[in-house]
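Example record used in the benchmark description.
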Amino acid sequence: MKSKLIAVVLSFIIMIGVTPLVFSALMNKKFDSMLESLKKEGYKISQIEDKSSYLKTDRVFEVVVPGKKIDNTGYVKDIVLKVETVFKNLPVTDVKFFGEVLKIELLNKYDTEILNKAIKDKIKFVVVTPNFKVYKYKVFNNKIVLEDTKFLFDDVEGELLYPKKNTLKIRDIILGSLTQPIMFEVKNFLTVYKKENNTLSQKNKFDFFVTLNSSKLSLLNVNIDNIAYFSEKLKVITTIDIKNADIFSLLRMSGFNLKFDLDGVDAEMIKKLENADSESAKQKVALEILQKGFNVLANLNISHIFVKNRDLGYLKLDVKAVFYPTSNILEKMQQSDFSFLDLKLHLETTPEIATLLMNEAPEFAFLFAFAKKDKNLVLDLEIKKGRLFVNGEEI
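Model output (structure tokens):
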């Protein structure tokens, strides 16, 4: 019995001793697998230090994030991070990534020097994962001063379910001038990104403020939803809702809703547009997209528009456009030949808002001259096979 007990105790001691080594190997295998996956996506990763011990894994890496991952304009070339990965070599543990931005490489060398001087030791974060699938992250609060501009951010945190879902919350973002009385602020920012098969969706919610001297612009309870369906053809639906808008006390709006639907764009052409490396190349691809044809639907509704606290009423605008495939679209546009386009426009508003629009843009006077006038104004405009119709009559 005594020898069995000794054997059990020895086995337990050996198990305790071996467990950190075994678990370390398993966790490092998962971690190395994640690194290889990132490398295949274009990230450059190199280990610069290994501070691991018997009971703890502690490895330091330099990670180069390609600029195109966050910026399609090409202005950001690379972002260089220092990331320290720490986890205990025990069966139950979280993996922690302590990181900081070392450098942001921009297309312009002078801008690069100015920016990196400002962000040095300023942008630090921590990421925690129990399984390399769910990542909770936090960016530490800080203030960045770039020449005559200050940038502050508070309570930045989120959760990433790789690669399907990302949730980001930011309590406060402030961008202000140190020399001019102007400040931009975003409060209570929330964004949720999801990816499922051939569908991408992103929901954004926030409040937005601009302060100029003692005047203020405010957009309260802003909701912006985007959803994209990918196949051979691309379909994108964007919805913008703003509960209340106050533009420096000169103009107020409530119940603002805009929906934009783009359908039938060649998906390969979108990839081509994203990979275009110059403005001229992008314009060339945009022309190709236009020549291949697509459909557009747009709906704008504003419940109330106020000027100097006077309620001028509502505005409703519906637009449907079909761009048919054509090979010489620029020539046709130069010749005022719109046979490649079918367009329907329906506008409803009050006489007071029509007067406001005409005062701001006299071109509206021509259109409103054809509007049906009752209590409110109704205008139906149609372009079909190059012919213009207003309220059903050809012009």
